[in-house]
Amino acid sequence: MINTLYLPELREMLATQDDAGLQEFCTALHPGRTAEFMEGLSAAEAWAVLLTTDLSTRVEIFGFLPEEVQTEIVEVSDPQEISELIAQMPPDDRVDLLNQVDPAVVEATLPLVPTEERRDILRLRAYPEGTAGAVMTTEVARLSESATAGEALQELGRQAQDLETIYYVYIVDDENHLRGLVSARQLVTHIGRPQTPIADLMERDLVTVEANDDQEAVARKVADYDFLAIPVVDDEQHLVGIITHDDIIDVLQEEATEDAHLAGAVEPLDLSYMATPVLRLTRLRAVWLAVLFAAALLTALALRSYHGTLERVAWLAWFVPLIISSGGNTGSQSATLVIRALTTKEITPDDWVKVMWRELAVGVLLGILLSAAGYIAACTMGLPWFDAFVLPITLMLVVICGTLVGSLLPLLFKRLGLDPALMSTPFVAGIIDIVGIVVLMQVAMLLVRDFAP
Questions:
Q1: Distinct helix (H) and strand (E) counts, the chain
Q2: Burial of 407 by CB count in 10 Å (0-12 exposed, 13-18 middle, 19+ buried)?
Q3: 144, 266, 350, 354: which could join 261 in a potential S-S bond, CB 3.0 to 4.6 Å?
């Protein structure tokens, strides 16, 4: 929700060119709160506010603005002013931003960025989207293996103002090969022993990732080891950057959002929901809805093929929604559990036999519970006791089918190299709908006396 508390005052200060008041506004609060109070301003107005403060504060506040606002500011503002902002941003953040900006604007702005920062931007943009290199920062605290604790503290003090984080200090040789690390805490605890060699303090057995590793795998590794940052190396063990915990949080959020979209049969959005144009939102949803519509049409055709059966035994139609919803819900539960287990690496496609037997056992137990309730319901509705057995038998078979389909199809998708989240709730439900109708009719034709020869 837009915070409108300061909007009238901000617009009045902009109209009267009250730079002193705007500057005070920019420095009085935490940058995140300042950005929050700027919600509702246009991109041009927001940039006008930021221009009244110093570059360092401007960068901090800009980093808290919504992505779509950042992108619009870059596209509509003076390239020279924007180049100064980009040069001061964290390397990973500025690359993410430029990847969202109109390529023509990027082409006009990059030549204005200082040479060193421009080379860094081009190097990071060369990494494919979704890899460790695309989310890492190249601002890394580096020290020589020959340094002492005292020298390390002095050097760290010189480097600190240009670094995004100094949780860990990485030890490299003359050719930038990663040799180890020491934490800032270790250095501080040795402030009274400045002659202690770094080589005696550093940890040599490091967990690293390579620049081309998948970002989701990197996020899992950081979570497994509870790191604040993880070093990124190339195939020759040169230190090329680090990925910090805040970037990992962004990756996890991005992956969770993508899985949630896929599970709801929606193609993942490139922008936020509110920033996505209505026509694009419609197109992304229409593709999957068309597929699900086709699946639902198959369900209707299955019912049509049993038209004669339903005419002879009309009460079967009462239980069609119950059957297909029970099977679909059971299958969706299994799919959700298996997809999550795949995501956390708790299972792999090679575990399909174990998963199948577990879900078969769960399906039988759930089937017994639902079948008992279904038989009581059928008898309560006045069906003959023998005919009423159609419902529990069908429920048992459909629930077992639901658990097996819901658990094994995501494993099959994973084996084929596809995202298991594609095997979403609607798809599983669509398959079980057809199976449920076929099973119900076949069981009825075997048991119901009206079909007796």
A1: 22, 6
A2: buried
A3: 266
Q: What is the mean pLDDT of residues 22-38?
A: 89
Residue with tokens 């198959």: 298
Q: Does one domain contain both 123 and 188?
A: no
Is the Cβ–Cβ distance between 86 and 109 less than 8 Å? yes
Beta-strand relationship, 239-244 and 229-233: antiparallel
- Do 335 and 410 form a contact (C-beta atoms < 8 A)? yes
Listed residues 98, 131, 164: the one ending a domain: 131
Residues 6+ apart with CB under 8 A from 224: none
pLDDT tens figures, 361-419: 999 999 898 888 888 888 887 777 777 788 888 889 988 998 998 888 888 888 887 77
pTM above 0.85, yes or no: no
- 223 and 179 assigned to the same domain: yes
Q: How many CB atoms lie within 10 A of CB 19?
A: 15
Instruction: Please choose, from the candidates 11, 68, 3, the residue with its C-alpha nearest in 3D space to the C-alpha of residue 29.
Output: 3
228 φ, ψ (degrees, to nearest 5): -90, -25
User: Regarding predicted confidence, which is higher, 321 or 179?
Assistant: 179
State the alpha helices, DSSP H only, in 270-415.
Answer: 278-305, 307-312, 316-343, 352-380, 390-415
CA gap 267, 276 in Å, rounded: 12
pLDDT confidence tier of residue 264, bands split at 50, 70 and 90: low
Q: Give which of 93, 140, 86, 74 is closest to 113, Cα–Cα.
A: 86
Predicted confidence at residue 62, as pLDDT, reads: 93
Report the C-alpha gap between 89 and 69 in whole angstroms. Answer: 16
CATH number at residue 394: 1.10.357.20
Give the tokens for residue 31. 């940058």
pLDDT in tens, 136-146: 888 888 888 88
CATH number at residue 205: 3.10.580.10
**Boundary (domain end) residue, out of 100, 131, 162:** 131
**Residue 248 φ/ψ, nearest 5 degrees:** -65, -40
How far, in Å, CA of 439 to CA of 320, rounded?
11
Range of the domain at 215: 142-245
Q: pLDDT exceeding 90 applies to what percent of the chain?
A: 13
Read off the DSSP letter of residue 197.
B
Tell me which residue of 348, 304, 364, 336 sits closest to 429, measured CA to CA: 336
